[in-house]
Amino acid sequence: METRIRRKLSMAERALAFELAQPSGDASHQHLVDRLQQLTTQATAVVHQEREGGVGESAARARRHDIDHQLRHLARVAVRATRTDPTLAGQLVPPSFSAPNRVFSGAAESMLQTATAMSGTLVAAGLGTAFLASLTDAVAAFNASGATATTGRLDHVGAHADFGAVAREIMELVRLIDGLNAVRFKDQPKLLAEWKAAKNVFGSVRAKPATAADGTSAAPSSAVAPTPGSAVVPTPGSAVVPTPAVTQAAA
């Protein structure tokens, strides 16, 4: 999920928690808070939907990576096998990883059929006795997950659009509540400060350190007091505090 979406949802949760802890006796104010609570619950559900959609897409991508790896191994074995069976030349070429699902799946199935027909030669060239069974299972799982991946992608995109509409109304409600709280807490600076922190989309704001004219951080200068009998070499920006002269007592 994008950072800005997470920030808005986090702000809505903080603002709602503040309002529930400091309820208003004004019916109009409470109506806004009730609606904010509804939207916060809805936004949480949308975020969950988007996350589930993303998981579906990730699973389908992982299966494609697995098949791609196996197909490329099959192609390398086929090149080696052409030394004993030249008819295999050019028959086992893996599809582009970025090809559409239908094209990628069709090419994988075609390679699998050819490899199954030439399994004896390919196994002798180093394919492995269990390789074709593993590839068959992987292609079947990829085909079965095609609908799930498509649904997951649609859920992901749809959830993102839904959250945009919810987030806009949340921001509108918080601005309205902010206007009411400015009056409600005008004589209670501590509560007003807590509300302002809660409604801040970017969280608490930290003061920036002072900078010097050259753009570097300006560190406070300190006075350096020498110890008796030691030489002091002043550094730029530091002040040397002279010490009283030490008078040697006459013998």
Describe this structure in words.
This protein is an all-alpha fold. The chain has one domain. The protein is 64% helix and 2% strand. It has 7 helices and 2 strands. It has helices at 3-21, 27-81, 101-117, 119-124, 131-144, 146-184, 189-198; strands at residues 223-224, 239-240. It has a two-stranded parallel ribbon. Helix 1 packs across helix 6 and helix 3 (101-117) runs antiparallel to helix 5. The N and C termini lie far apart (84 Å).
Topology (SSEs and partners):
Layout: H1 3-21, H2 27-81, H3 101-117, H4 119-124, H5 131-144, H6 146-184, H7 189-198, E1 223-224, E2 239-240
Parallel strand pairs: 1-2
Helical percentage: 55-70%
Shape: rod-shaped
| Strand arrangement in the largest pleated sheet | 1-2
Classification by helices and strands: mainly alpha
Low-confidence stretches: 218-224, 245-251
Our count of domains comes out at 1
Using DSSP, what is the number of strands? 2
Approximately what portion of the residues adopt beta-strand conformation? under 5%
Number of helices, where a helix is a run of at least 4 consecutive DSSP H or I residues: 7
